[in-house]
């Protein structure tokens, strides 16, 4: 309290002031998380039947409009089958006319049933011919599928050839550390900054908490889904960045010392009897 030791007194006063400020001042507690932008819908375009690839003008990374041709399947066998079915139907029609002319009702009924069957088979072939042209169901971005190196190769029925995601609807997927998942609630607001657009923040709202965890760097992370408030034309599925969720206003000393306090508690629980 006497004269002298000015430096020590000044350092002590500064430390006391900072401690008092941290103990009384409040700030916004925001939870940071690695974030990935995904399309809200991921539509698969599959092979409608067993066949061979004829043309593939589109591939992954292309922006396509609705009904854009993605690929075509070889239709030569189907055209021959359609010709055979058409000839069979014409022959049955002539037989049916002959049976009617002879007043052979039983034979006419049999041929009429065969005509119905031949007509159904012809319609099936026509439907397959139409499905040889695989088109985009909506405008979007092709995120997978490159058949340009597979021309002439075989594809099986149900095989996924392309995957398409829209350009006007996205969802934000955040990886939340399991130690912080208890702070996250549906309806909380946040801000996303993408690595490719660091100067443009995007607001989002938490919409879903999934009970799915992934292991990464020795820790478990929960996948949390959020919806963007606005969608820009420059956004693309697969972009990554950092999202911050606004939790609540808390005292700064609680925000800064939380990890240390939790580590001490866990250490005491592990080693004390």
Give a brief description.
The protein has 273 residues and is of the alpha+beta class.
Structure description:
This protein is an alpha+beta fold and 273 residues long. The protein has four helices and 14 strands. The chain has helices spanning 6-24, 76-101, 105-130, 252-271; strands at residues 26-39, 43-46, 51-55, 63-64, 69-73, 133-135, 140-144, 154-155, 160-165, 170-177, 189-194, 197-216, 219-228, 240-251. The strands form three sheets. Strands 1-10-13-12-11-14 form a six-stranded antiparallel β-barrel. The chain has a four-stranded antiparallel sheet with strand order 2-9-7-4, with no helix packed on it. A four-stranded antiparallel sheet has the order 6-5-3-8, with no helix packed on it. Strand 12 and strand 13 (219-228) form a beta hairpin. Helix 2 packs antiparallel against helix 3. The longest helix has 26 residues, at 76-101. The chain is rod-shaped. The mean pLDDT is 84.
């Amino acid at each position: 309290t006497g004269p002298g030791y000015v430096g020590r007194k000044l350092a002590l006063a500064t430390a006391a002031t900072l401690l008092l400020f941290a103990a009384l001042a409040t700030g916004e507690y925001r939870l940071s998380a690695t974030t990935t932008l995904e399309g809200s819908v991921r539509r698969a375009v599959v092979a409608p039947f067993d066949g061979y690839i004829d043309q593939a003008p589109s591939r992954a990374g292309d922006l396509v409009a609705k009904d854009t041709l993605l690929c075509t399947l070889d239709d030569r066998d189907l055209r021959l089958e359609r010709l055979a079915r058409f000839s069979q139907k014409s022959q049955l029609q002539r037989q049916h006319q002959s049976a009617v002319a002879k007043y052979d009702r039983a034979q006419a009924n049999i041929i009429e049933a065969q005509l119905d069957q031949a007509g159904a088979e012809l319609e099936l072939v026509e439907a397959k011919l139409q499905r040889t042209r695989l088109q985009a169901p909506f405008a979007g971005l092709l995120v997978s599928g490159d058949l340009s190196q597979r021309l002439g190769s075989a594809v099986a029925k149900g095989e996924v050839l392309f995957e398409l995601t829209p350009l006007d609807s996205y969802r934000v997927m955040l990886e939340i550390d399991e130690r912080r998942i208890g702070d996250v609630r549906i309806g909380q607001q946040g801000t996303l900054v993408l690595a490719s657009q660091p100067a443009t923040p995007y607001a989002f709202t938490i919409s879903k908490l999934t009970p799915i965890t992934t292991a990464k760097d020795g820790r478990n992370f929960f996948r949390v889904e959020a919806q963007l408030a606005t969608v820009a034309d420059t956004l693309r599925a697969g972009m990554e960045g950092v999202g911050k969720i606004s939790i609540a206003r808390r005292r700064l000393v609680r925000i800064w010392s939380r990890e240390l306090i939790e580590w001490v508690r866990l250490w005491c629980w592990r080693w004390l009897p």
